[in-house]
C-alpha cells in the first residue's frame, strides 16, 4: 500500500520598502532628504512571485537605528494572485537618530498550509536566522549638514560675483589703454 504524503507548500513573496520623508526644510519647504527627529512614512510593496495564489499572511517589520532605538510594526498582507502586487498603507514614524535606519523583518510570515520565503533586497529569508540581515535602509542626515551645504553654495556664488566684478574692471582698464 502506497500512501501519499502531502508536502507543505512554499510561497515566495517579494517585499520592497518604500520610504517617504515628511520633513520640512526651513519649516516651509518639503524635502526628499531624511533628517534626524523629523517625520517619515514607510510602506511596503508586496508581490506574489510564487507559481500559485498566495493565501495572505501577517508581515511584521522593524527599523533599527544607530542609537539603539527601534520601531516595530506589522501589516496584514491580503491574498494575492500570481504576480499580483499590493502596497501597504503608509506607517508614520520619526527618524530616531542620524545614520542609517536598517529595515528588516522581525519574523517569517506563517500560513496554514505551508511556509513563506521572503525575497527582499536581493536576499531570501527562509529561516529565523536570516532575520538578522536588513533588506533596506533609510539614510538620515543632521539638519546642520544641509544648512552647511547651502551656506557653502551661497558663499561660492558670492565669491564668483566678486571675481567677475574684478575681471570686468580689469577688462575695462585694459580696453582703455589700447
Explain the overall architecture:
It is built from one helix and 14 strands. With 178 residues, the chain is an alpha+beta fold. It folds into two domains: 9-141, Sandwich (Immunoglobulin-like), CATH 2.60.40; 143-178. Strands 1, 5, 8, 9, 11, 12 and 13 form a seven-stranded mixed beta sheet that branches. The longest helix has 35 residues, at 143-177. The N and C termini lie far apart (113 Å). 20% of the residues are buried.
- Backbone structural class: alpha+beta
Per CATH, what is the topology of the largest domain?
Immunoglobulin-like
Number-wise, the strands total 14
Average of per-residue pLDDT values: 86
Low-confidence stretches: none
CATH class wording of the largest domain: Mainly Beta
Secondary-structure element series:
EEEEEEEEEEEEEEH
Report the helical percentage.
Answer: 10-25%
Indicate the CATH architecture of the largest domain: Sandwich
Shape: elongated
Report the C-alpha radius of gyration, rounded. 26 Å
The number of helical elements comes to: 1
Residue fraction in strands: 35-45%
